[in-house]
Write a structure and sequence with these properties.
Largest sheet: none
Shape: globular
Helix content: over 70%
Order of helices and strands: HHHHHHHHH
Number of helices: 9
Radius of gyration: 20 Å
Mean pLDDT: 82
C-alpha cells in the first residue's frame, strides 16, 4: 500500500471536513448578524417616528426578540450562529481566508480582531439567553463606563482619543469599501441573475454606507469625550442613532440611516447565501 497516497487522502478528507464545518459556521454567523441588524434598524425606525422607548442597540434587539413566540429558542439560535461567526474568523486567522492575499499578515490580524469581537458578542447574547438579565446595561451606559475607566488610566485621554480615531477610520473604511463594491471579490457573482446582483448591490452599498456612518459618528463622540475629558460625551449605538434626529434634517436623517441598517441586515442574508468561504 502506498502510505504517501494514503496520508495525502487523509489530509484531503480532513481539509474537506474542516471546510464544510467552517462554511456552515460562516453562513450561520452571517444569518445571525443579519437578524440583529434588521431588528436594530427596525427599532431605530420606530424611534424616528416616536413609537418606542426601546434601546436601538443589540440589547434592545434581544429584548424585542425575547418577547416574540419561541423567543428563547430564537435567542439561542442567534447566539449559536454568532459562535459560528467567531469560529469562522478564528479559522481565517489560523489558516487564511479566500482571495489572493488571504494568508497575509494583515488579513490574519484583521481576522483575529473580528474573532475577538464576535466572541464578546456571542458571549453577551448567550448570557442574555441564559438569564434574560440586562444588568449589563445599554450600549450607551457601557460606552460611558468603559470611557470613564479608560480616562482614569495614565495617558487615558490619548488612549480614548486614539480609539475614537480608529473607530472613525474603521467607519470610513467600511463605508468606502461598500460604495466601491469591494464585497464583489467575496461573492459568487456567477451564481446570481442580473436582477439579483442589482438587488444585492442596493443592499450592500446603502447598507454598508449607513453602517460605516454610524461607526464614524460613534468614533467622533469618543474623540470629543477624550478632548473634553467627559465620559458622558461617549455614546453607544442607541445614543449615536438618536443623535441623527438632532441634526437640522430632523428625524428624516435617522430614518435614512435606520433604513440603511435594515438593508445591511438583508445584505448579510445575501452574504450568507453567496459568500465564498
Amino acid at each position: 500500500m502506498d502510505t504517501s497516497a494514503l496520508a495525502q487522502g487523509r489530509f484531503r478528507a480532513r481539509r474537506a471536513a474542516r471546510g464544510s464545518v467552517t462554511e456552515g459556521a460562516a453562513r450561520a454567523g452571517l444569518t445571525a448578524r443579519g437578524v440583529i441588524y434588521l431588528l436594530v434598524g427596525a427599532l431605530a425606525l420606530q424611534i424616528a417616528f416616536g413609537d418606542t422607548g426601546e434601546q436601538a442597540d443589540r440589547g434592545g434587539a434581544l429584548a424585542e426578540l425575547a418577547q416574540q413566540p419561541f423567543g428563547a429558542v430564537l435567542l439561542w439560535a442567534l447566539g449559536i450562529g454568532l459562535v459560528g461567526m467567531a469560529l469562522w474568523r478564528l479559522s481565517e486567522a489560523l489558516f487564511g481566508s479566500v482571495g489572493q492575499d488571504g494568508r497575509s499578515a494583515r488579513k490574519r490580524l484583521l481576522a483575529t480582531v473580528r474573532f475577538a469581537f464576535y466572541v464578546f458578542v456571542a458571549y453577551s447574547m448567550l448570557s442574555f439567553a441564559t438569564s434574560r438579565d440586562q444588568s449589563g446595561g445599554s450600549s450607551d451606559r457601557q460606552s460611558r463606563d468603559a470611557t470613564a475607566r479608560a480616562l482614569e488610566l495614565p495617558g487615558g485621554q490619548w488612549l480614548v482619543g486614539a480609539a475614537g480615531i480608529a473607530i472613525v477610520a474603521a467607519g470610513g473604511w467600511i463605508g468606502v469599501r461598500a460604495v466601491l463594491r469591494k464585497y464583489h471579490d467575496k461573492l459568487r457573482l456567477g451564481q446570481m441573475s442580473h436582477r439579483t446582483r442589482q438587488l444585492v448591490d442596493v443592499t450592500g452599498v446603502a447598507g454598508g454606507a449607513a453602517r460605516g456612518l454610524v461607526f464614524a459618528v460613534a468614533g467622533v463622540f469618543a474623540v470629543r469625550a477624550a478632548v473634553d475629558y467627559e465620559p458622558d460625551r461617549a455614546k453607544g449605538l442607541d445614543d449615536t442613532l438618536r443623535s441623527f434626529a438632532d441634526t437640522p434634517l430632523g428625524p428624516w436623517l435617522l430614518v435614512c440611516v435606520a433604513a440603511g441598517l435594515v438593508l445591511f441586515g438583508v445584505f448579510s442574508f445575501a452574504m450568507a447565501r453567496w459568500r465564498r468561504v
